[in-house]
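HUMAN: Please help interpret these tokens:
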Amino acid sequence: MVLVAIGVDAYADQFRDGLIRTNMRDPVSWGFYIGNFAFLVGVAAAAVVLVIPAYLYDWKPIKEIALIGELLAIAAIIMCVLFVTVDVGNPLRVWHMLPFIGTPNFPRSLLAWDVVVLSAYLTLNLVISTHILFKSYRNQHYNKRFAVPLILFSIPAAVGIHTVTAFLFAGLPARSYWNAAILAPRFLTSAFCSGPAIILVLLQILRRTTRLKVTNAALFKIAELMAYAMFINLFLFGAEIFRDYYSSTREIIHYQFLFGGGPYGGSPIAIYAWFALACSLGAFLLFLIPRTRTNLITLNIGAVMIYAGVYIEKGVALVVPGFAPSTLGEIYQYAPSSTELRVSMGIFGIGAILFTLMVKVATKFLFSNPALQGHHDDGGHDAPGAVA
């Protein structure tokens, strides 16, 4: 609540004075808000890491906890919407995106596509979670014929939200740093690292504070899936680095600014970029080696490292170098203002409160009737404890 109060106070100043309260200017028109938006879209899509082994492969240890991923996706999408709202400056302008009332320019506008896929994914997760929890509240098993097709449809929907978000960046030909076909695959692989990292930590907290049964086997399987995703993400990043540095293409200027090489030896974001790369490499090694992957201490260290690495990669390392230099050759040294930081703290506070309330309701309903706990009932329906 303290974070929310800080954020509301900061946003009141921004709403009154405008985006001059931020450090965004014409040379850098996207900043900390859009970086957080891109990161949280990946967190929302990470529910797929639980849904695929749970429902495509019917792996019961994860099937019993997959609902947590759906609830996290709901909170993450709401935070995404809030970050876009504060980045617009005046939230009253949102009516331009509404069909019939405004001019969303669908289907030509990628922004309109992003609104559509995020709204659809949010609705999908809300319907699934509400149906399962409502049936649990009434001490009934959820309707498998209704819920499972929606759950399976959420897999391509999750891929879609992050793909469209990547296309928002990649579809800008004037920004050569983003204008690459490889950006969408990198968005997806990094999402399947950062989101599960949060889920790993949350599941351990929940099994200590609630009656939610989380086995170590489920945690270790999630970490194994993260290792595969991290390898692909690092490989794609290395492929981009090789192309630009070996060929000395004009795009190399963005990576020089990012890592502090060439004429940008004093780049203010270089230390963050190197730190993010070190975190990603370190976490990959921890999750790759079975002994460290199956040790809860090193598992949690790796989860924190990959969260930090991808958060910086999607925030500072993605947005800022795309504007350096600008289309006019200018270098604007952007850093988020105190207003941007406080507003972001408030939005993360809202997301944390929403997720906490949803988990409290979910655990109360799912475990209020011991007779309903288990994997399957005689009628072939999954018990409410085994959901996604």
Observations:
- The chain has one domain: 2-369.
- The CA atoms of residues 39 and 311 lie 6 Å apart.
- The two ends are 29 Å apart (CA to CA).
- Residues 2-369 form a domain with the Formate dehydrogenase/DMSO reductase fold fold (CATH 1.20.1630.10).
